[in-house]
Amino acid sequence: MGGAAANPQPPDDSPGFDARPRRVRVLLPLPLGEAYDYLAPPETALAPGALVEVPLGSRRVAGAVWDAEPEDSRVPAHKLKAVLRVCDAPPLPRPVRQFVDWVARYYLAEPGAVLKMALPVPAALDPPAPRLAYRRIQTPEHLPVRLTAARKRVLDVLADGLARPVTELAKEAAVSSAVVRGLADAGALEQVPIHPGAPGALPEALPEGPPLSESQGAAADALVDRVRADAFSVTLLDGVTGSGKTEVYFQAVKEALAQGRQVLVLLPEIALSAQWLERFERRFGVEPAQWHSELTQAQRRDTWRAVARGEARVVVGARSALFLPYPALGLVVVDEEHEPAFKQEDGVPYHARDMAVVRARLGGIACVLTSATPSLESIENVRAGRYDSVRLPERHAGAALPEVAPIDMRKDRPTPIEGHGTSYIAPSLRDAVAETLAAGEQAMLFLNRRGYAPLVLCRSCGHRLQCPHCTAWLVEHRLIHRLQCHHCGFVTHPPDTCPECEAADSLAACGPGVERLTEEVRALFPDARTALMASDTVTGPDSAARFVESVRRGEVDLLIGTQIVAKGHHFPGLTLVGVVDADLGLAGGDLRAGERTYQLLHQVAGRAGRAEKPGRVLLQTYGPEHPVIEALVSGERDSFLAVEAENRKLAEMPPFTRLVALIVSSPEEDQADAVTRGLARTAPEREGVEVLGPAPAPMAVLRGRHRRRLLLKTRRDQAPQPLLRAWLARVAVPNKVRLYVDVDPYGFL
Ligand code: ADP
Ligand code: ZN
Question: From the CA of 615, how far away is ligand 1's center (Å)?
């Protein structure tokens, strides 16, 4: 597949062809609404998917020829502008076009805004300028210019006959690039174009993986069968952490590759997935192509082209990798399918796990979702027979699952530390850490809160420091001496006096963040080597990889971290995990609070005892009888999920109903209120449809905008989109007011 640009069709193939220039619809990657009509040059019949450049006002914009629509409402031909040229990129395959339309319809987004995700790098639509390299054509003896030491070094480097780009050559020969150019000008070197290999290409032969256990083998066979079936299917690969899910789905990856297809693996946080990449390389002997926000423009261009040309065979990426123009996709894997990171919350808000399933359906291919703690959505889809499921019940090679126990903070109270103050670590957890360290093993303390303290309060008047732009407290970050809003990024210096009562030295940090916990741990265990891992202390894939490596090498005894330590890392020496505040995620009105806390803590717990030594997990809680804590302790996931499902059903909440959140926001509070009232007045009324609200959104003010929220709830068998379209068309939204439509919302801020 792949093929040349713009599939020309012989004219006698198309009914109704005449000599007049033909119109084509062109969808532009801009939030402009629908596709526009243009005239195709008479000699080039442009098939849907062709990538073309067209005039738009005074600009030239590249877009895609879109599938034709009914003939009405069309501008007369003499008013149309002509397509300027056809780009040198393969046409967008049909499933990709259908996917763009599908996503736009489902999420009520502009098709052009969705197309932008499929065409994110305009430069990729044309071949890159060839990279030039220098090769030697004269030996030192026949040099037309004087042989200086520098020139000789260049010629020596090139003695192997290989061509090198100028910067590389200059570096290797330790000369300036002027020396290289001088030699070229003198005729001693010639310039040749070089073609770097496509990202994500494959070796000649696919290596065999490790021998699989019996249950792994059965699971792998099931997935391989789905790939061979060459039809749409969704399979949930459900197995405890360390059971070998990755090893198992690698077999399905191999099968798809052996069939000449492309494979997409979505990871929740590609920037933190150094270990995954390393494993893939060890298994397949090549690096996969990567797609995520940290790539340079040139990498994005090369990767997009390699995917479009079918040369990139394996792509591993963040959610946006779903929109790449795969001509031969044969398998989509969503690793850690329950992860909230798959939901995009800005731009076009979409859920990449759900859209991976849609993409697989449109392509008629297999989709595999993996998790140790599947989402209730996926569990329900399995129960209803929409998805298949394959289970891996045990850890690989007999590694035991960690033993989980609660610490009841009402009885086992932390005592203040001499000369240090408040403590957040109960005596029994402190003892467990001490034992672990004494045994020469590693321990980890988990607290999902960045910074030093989540709140700063005046001891004399009670004033709390709040973000000037949001309904949120400012979080103290002591390492950088700043107060930060975690919602809008507002940053300020900690004041010396209370801004309200002007008392001096009265501001006190309330509650723990990981920085404060680190301070406490250092006071308790002065001899231990401690390290803090949070998204603001370990930034980017490289520093994450270095950090993880140093933990693995045993250079750290005691690790303190937020949720980024929970993500898929394998620390063989780690035998104790202490969860400092297991109740943290359970407060608040989020529909999925219980489910998510369970997933996160289960994943954190899974870091312990992944190698020979057994692991232990301690959960500090004020509510050991809470179903989430009980399920973590007993390991009875399925009964917990059954109760969760029952509660959702009773409350008529997803996955048993459908929700759409409407967030109205405006710098002017009364405008936000007026629009919200208008929406409430015209809300659809019919059987099976309910509108909840309006209410101030939990973040009543965010980035200086006042926010109101409505929730539309429909029965599962009732699509909310047509209702929404009709509803929103009835309400006028003034310029300054923004209406954010979030279909299947996950965040409830
Ligand atoms: P999961 O994805 O379910 O957490 P992994 O696939 O990461 O599990 O496997 C856990 C560990 O066990 C990894 O280090 C992996 O290399 C190893 N492993 C799993 N299955 C096998 C196997 N069949 N042979 C050798 N090592 C295996
Ligand atoms: Zn703020």
Answer: 17
